Amino acid sequence: MKFEETYIKGLFVIEPNVFCDKRGWFMESYNFEIFKRNKIEIVFIQDNHSNSINKGVLRGLHFQNNPQAQTKLIRCTIGSIWDVAVDLRQSSATFLRWFSIELSSDNHKMLLIPKGFAHGFMTLVDNCEVQYKVDAFYDKAFDRSIRYDDPQIDIKWPKIGPIISDKDQNAPLLKDSDVNFQ
Questions:
Q1: 80: closest CA among 128, 43, 119?
Q2: Left (φ > 0), alpha (ψ -120 to 50) or beta: where does 136 sit?
Q3: Residues catalogued as catalytic
Q4: What is the pLDDT of residues 17-43, one digit of tens each?
Q5: What does pTM read for this prediction?
């Protein structure tokens, strides 16, 4: 596996080793020992899996407040998504900066998003599946969203869709949220 830290501290693009032959391919998506050798010691305790039928589905921006904040390991197992992580750590030098990457079933790339970030993605094709691991259980009491089009963050989403849930459409702006990451 290749670990590449982005310009935002703690946010990594991970490229697994993919072994192909005439039958298809095989890869490890997570191995505690390999992550540990790269100074990332995370124990994941829950796997999540979403399916989006249409191109242009936008999910996000989501996070859980402390003390239930989550580290996420995101990958697209069917299709292609434009994945976004926003640094919400108020003491960070990159506070409110965002990073985006295309994750797809073809490129096998993964994004490791640490605690203190909001996460969202937009499907680039029909029929996408996204799977991600988290290191803290889902907790409705700490579940939060902020608007995907918040002008303070100013994410440049692809010019398709968006198809958005009522929850995400009605999410507060960052200035009106109770985000508590220091």
A1: 128
A2: beta
A3: 62, 132
A4: 999 999 999 999 999 999 999 999 999
A5: 0.95
